[in-house]
Amino acid sequence: MSTDVLSRRARRGAALAAAAAVALAFGLCTLALGAWSSLESQSVNLRFRLRPTEHPSGIVVVGIDDATFSTLRMTWPFPRSIDGEAVSRLRADGAKTIVYDVQFTEPTQPAQDLSLYDAIDRAGGAILATSDSDDGHTDVLGGDANLAAIHSRAARSNLVSDDGVFDRYDYSLDGIPTLAVATAERVLGRPVPRSSFGPSPAWIDYPGPPGTFPTVSFGDLVKGRVDPRLIAGKIVVIGATSATLQDVHPTPTTSGELMSGPEIQAAAIWSALHGNPLRHAPGWVALLSVVLAALLLPLAAVRLRLRAVVALGALGAIAYAIVCWRAFDAGTILDLTYPLATWAAGLVATLAACAIAGDIERHLIAVHARVLEGTVRERDKQLSDTELEIVRRLAHAAESRDADTGDHIERIGFLSERLGLAAGMSRARARMLGHAAVMHDVGKIGIPDAVLLKPARLSPEEWDVMRTHTTAGAEILAGSDRPIIQMAEVIARTHHERWDGSGYPAGLKGEDIPLVGRVCSICDVFDALLSPRPYKEAWTVDEALAEIERGRGSHFDPQLVDVFLALIPDLLHVYADQAPAEATIVDLDAAAAAAAELTSAARAADESVEAA
Q1: What's the pTM value of the predicted model, to 2 decimals?
Q2: What integer best gives the mean pLDDT of the chain?
Q3: How many domains does one find in the chain?
């Protein structure tokens, strides 16, 4: 064998050894540092969604849903005698164990509290939720001694979330067992071993997405409309399932649909009863996977041609992903992203080693670089599109509780962008303003339906509640490092401030009001005046323009009003489908004349403006 051949093989072997070392160092460092734990969590969520749904039969959820309020004709919170009636119904229907995911830590009227207390006593006891405790003790229905007297137990309803996704639960908190553990111990008649939790919280082994557990309405239960066969011999979890009660949360089972708190607790109880069958593989398994991923491809490249190594890389990645998927279905969570990233690093390092050894032409490296650059640009665009989609979905979520439609927020975004551009903003900043402005009323998510949906003028007290949507919206958006969310926070907080200082929430005046808030204020009022509301008809364009002119220097920035009035004739096409036939464009003199005629309607206009 010639010296040149030996030299080439030695160089190739040395380059491949270096590739293996680089891939191994990369894999071990990223695994030890948990470099992308959020991405790994998302891969677990994906495995939940790919897993077939099971249909457990031993647990029933009784949901305090939207239908319950109309059935009982009551508002939340209910008198505790109603909860007592529910417990009595469950006892009569033969429920095996009653779990109440509603907190009774504060006393109400003695007669109401005693009604619930006696009902639980007659039912043989229950597991009652609490989210806090004092040195291992609770105040549920008067304290632990009171609960013990009626064969009941308080348990912590807290769950563990990863990036906001509820996926695990603890054995106990502050010496008090969690709801799932306390329920399992009551059903099984023996303690749940701590060993089933391992060194960290146990995974909730969700049998399926929202709606997997049989669910009945709390109102139907109280009214006696539930078939006793659905309840007999079952563990019954009672809790809030209506989104308005704000006990719905993201889970790994779906990407967008939220799951109610009681159904999450039901899944945790199901997991505890079955010994927490879903567990993470021991740490040495992940370590071994990373080591093998780093070494296999460089070793294979010693014997195989480059094309075969690439094919092995692709097939190996697919095979490992399938192994992780099947292992998950069998109850074992294997790390997916760290071995795959190491495998990819090993492949890249092997290709680089072969290139250094002369096996890959230089132009192929350039082609690879161009493809990678295009992929990065596409990923950047996907991330940007995703951010804007989340912005609009959040805005639609707020508007969906009001009488407004999605067209309202789209028009506000369009008008704000055009007005900002005409007022001197750069095109990029005006575009950002258009996207951010759609979230101006996101704080309405927190306004009670009785105020938000009232089909009449609001009382002074109700106006005080309605005005909190500005600060509530700003608090929802606060703390982000994304420029568009930061701008949206400013708009949410300041779009009801007035040029003369009479606005809210801070009473800012003149140019102390941020420009984006002043722009959105004009656009929001104009669109609101042209839109029908429960307490008013839609105004014509002439009337709306006159009202904007009337607010020049008092409600609105006078310079922005001038820009808006000059700009609006080119923008009214967005109202083509809703504007009255007579709502045509008029010149500024006609708008001023219309403003004078509307002076007597100033109070109604102000209320329309505030409602915007």
Answers
A1: 0.57
A2: 86
A3: 3
